[in-house]
Amino acid sequence: MNVLVDTSVWSLALRRRSSQLSTAESTAVSELAELIREERVRLIGIVRQEVLSGIKETAQFERLRSTLRAYEDETLSTDDFEAAAKASNDCRARGLLSSAVDILICSTAIRRKWLIFTTDPDFRRYANVISIRLHRPRAFRS
């Protein structure tokens, strides 16, 4: 099954030194590497933008941009954005605020029957309201 990788995971893998990672973060990076080997990783443009934003050094920006170019952006349609708006409304009705980026990730994954791989705890809260499925690293599966 394909896995839509969130900014939080890409950032651990591409923007942090491995010596600075906690055990759980290292596990997430290892899992991303395994998903890449299995050719299951999916990316959307807004995640690409988030990963590349805020980088001060041109050389680092170019290195990350080059790395991410290996992954095509999933083409999003009007239906994806409308589904995101509906998911956002559903969350809000249950007292849960969501960012536009997070909810677009959710709706994209739902519509394509993909898992979401993230370290962002907000997604566990979204899962209580909308039908997203989260990818868990193999090391944490029972």
Topology of this structure?
Blueprint: E1 3-5, H1 7-15, H2 23-37, E2 41-42, H3 45-52, H4 58-68, H5 78-93, H6 100-112, E3 115-117, H7 122-126
Parallel strand pairs: 1-2, 1-3
Structure commentary:
- By secondary structure, this protein is mainly alpha-helical.
- The chain has one domain: Rossmann fold (3-Layer(aba) Sandwich).
- It is 54% helix and 6% strand.
- It contains seven helices and three strands, in the order βααβααααβα.
- Strands 2-1-3 form a three-stranded parallel beta sheet.
- It is globular, with a radius of gyration of 15 Å.
Descriptive labels:
Rossmann fold; mainly alpha; globular; 142 residues
Give the structure's gist in a few sentences:
By secondary structure, the protein is mainly alpha-helical.
Number of helices: 7
What number of domains? 1
Main sheet overview: 3 strands, parallel
- What is the CATH topology? Rossmann fold
User: What's the assembly state of these chains?
Assistant: single chain
- Catalogue the unreliable spans: none
Radius of gyration: 15 Å
- Shape field: globular
Work out the helicity level.
Answer: 40-55%
Category by helix and strand content: mainly alpha
Run of helices and strands: EHHEHHHHEH
CATH class group? Alpha Beta
Alpha carbon gap, first and last residue = 19 Å
Tell me what portion of residues adopts beta-strand conformation: 5-15%
Give the strand order, joined by hyphens, for the main sheet. 2-1-3
CATH architecture: 3-Layer(aba) Sandwich
Residue-averaged pLDDT: 94
The CATH homologous superfamily is called: 5'-nuclease
Number of strands: 3
